[in-house]
């Protein structure tokens, strides 16, 4: 269950970043609205235990 939650959180963070930036990683478009500077690990405490996910 913890792996599923980690996968889901990473997916949501990536989609939110894509929506905010207006471009995918390493993509250059005319609709750019922000920059992407990589990811960092973050911890989240849940009832299933501590989850470490990557935050863009």
Q: What features would you describe in this structure?
A:
This protein is α+β, with helices and mostly antiparallel strands and 56 residues long. The chain has a domain at 1-19 and 37-56. It is 36% helix and 25% strand. The chain contains one helix and two strands; from the N terminus they run αββ. It has one helix at residues 2-21; strands spanning 40-46, 49-55. A two-stranded antiparallel sheet has the order 1-2. A hairpin with a 2-residue loop joins strand 1 and strand 2 (49-55).
The largest β sheet comes out as:
2 strands, antiparallel
- Low-confidence segments, given as residue ranges, are none
Annotation, overall tally of beta strands: 2
Residues in helix, %: 25-40%
Strand fraction band?
25-35%
- SS-based class: alpha+beta
Number of helices: 1
Q: How are helices and strands ordered from N to C?
A: HEE
Shape: elongated
Overall pLDDT metric: 76
């Amino acid at each position: 269950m913890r792996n599923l939650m980690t996968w889901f959180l990473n997916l949501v963070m990536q989609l939110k970043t894509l929506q905010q930036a207006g471009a995918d990683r390493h993509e250059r478009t005319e609709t750019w609205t922000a920059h992407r500077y990589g990811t960092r690990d973050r911890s989240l405490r849940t009832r299933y235990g501590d989850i470490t996910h990557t935050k863009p």
